[in-house]
Write a structure and sequence with these properties.
- The strands form 2 sheets. Strands 6-7-8-9-11-10 form a 6-stranded mixed beta sheet.
- 44% of the residues are buried.
- It is α/β, with parallel strands linked by helices.
- The protein has 2 domains: 190 residues, Alpha-Beta Complex (inorganic pyrophosphatase (n-terminal core)), CATH 3.90.1640; 120 residues, Diaminopimelate Epimerase, Chain A, domain 1.
């Protein structure tokens, strides 16, 4: 029996299924979670299927979260999508079910769960959910709402098919999802649009970006900056790809202040691996897209120095 077959048997076995994803979700976290919930619910209407976690207003167009009581976890199957590390799971009751399954496309550096289906080469967890559906399509139903959520997740995590994890298979999956008939243009426009405060913050980022000769770019969004643009951490996601649009930038970090004075660090790269840097600073992720933490400005400056060294080493190898 394959791993996917074991997961399917667990889904068929349990009457109640609760699906979690990571904190501060992106479109792939919500898309894979909602897409899987929709597929299971449409395929097994008598089951109770709950997608749980903090509701994020900017992504509620993909799907709404539901409320799970503590008692709902008794004898339940819990599935966590798109979450590499246990501390990042939204709602720590995810361990209270009878069985726990991890479905993810990040490196499996922090294993958890009774069953783990992890494919780091996949473009997104939403792509994996479609692959799961396709493997058992004789018994599963893909609704247009499920397809819409999965498509949003794939487009979000591939940067509109710009990132290296995009494969011919990714495009075939996207085409199959589009064929279900949801409004593709509306989804693409929604993913591409930004609020006016984020547009103004974008100008600030470009104006204040510090770029080394080797192409390491950094910008720090302090409390004063966020207040100036009337934004919180969640509202800064739209500026993360911006430094990469500059032709001389090869890797970059955006530091965003948190309530306790620490900094969330969003790391991205066009070539040199940056997940080792992330791991040294309480984080992790993909080679070209990772996250980390800095407890104060001193650690922010350490990360800036290390990122500059990574870019310089990459340049010396003749990659730039």
């Amino acid at each position: 029996m394959t791993l996917q077959q074991e997961i399917f048997e667990q889904i068929k076995k349990h009457q109640r299924i609760i699906i979690h994803r990571h904190q501060r979700p992106d479109p792939d976290a919500i898309g894979s979670q909602i897409g899987l919930a929709e597929i299971i619910q449409a395929s097994f209407p008598m089951k109770t299927v709950l997608a749980v976690g903090k509701q994020v207003s900017g992504l509620n167009w993909i799907g709404e979260m539901e409320i799970a009581d503590d008692d709902d976890y008794d004898d339940a199957l819990v599935i966590v999508t798109d979450t590499a590390n246990p501390p990042r799971v939204d709602d720590n009751r995810y361990t209270n079910g009878q069985e726990l399954i991890k479905i993810d496309h990040h490196p499996n550096d922090d294993p958890y769960g009774d069953l783990m289906w992890v494919v780091p080469s996949a473009s997104s967890s939403s792509e994996l959910i479609y692959d799961f559906y396709h493997q058992f399509k004789k018994e599963l139903t893909l609704t247009s709402e499920a397809a819409r959520a999965l498509y949003a997740g794939i487009v979000g995590d591939t940067g509109r098919f710009l990132y290296p994890a995009t494969t011919p298979h990714t495009l075939r999956v996207a085409a199959a999802l589009m064929a279900t008939g949801f409004d593709v243009t509306a989804v693409n426009q929604k993913l591409d649009s930004i609020a006016l405060p984020v547009a103004r913050l974008s100008a600030y980022v470009y104006q204040n970006l510090e770029i080394t000769d080797a192409g390491a770019a950094t910008v720090c969004l302090t409390a004063e900056v966020l207040d100036q643009f009337d934004l919180k951490d969640a509202g800064t996601a739209g500026v993360v790809p911006l430094p990469g649009k500059i032709d001389t930038v090869v890797c970059w970090a955006i530091f965003v202040v948190q309530r306790d004075g620490s900094y969330r660090v969003r790391l991205r790269s066009k070539g040199p691996s940056i997940n080792g840097l992330a791991k040294r600073h309480d984080g992790g992720g993909h080679a070209l897209a990772s996250g980390a933490k800095a407890k104060d400005m001193a650690e922010v400056n350490v990360i800036r120095t290390e990122l500059a060294e990574i870019a310089a080493a990459y340049q010396q190898k003749g990659k730039v």
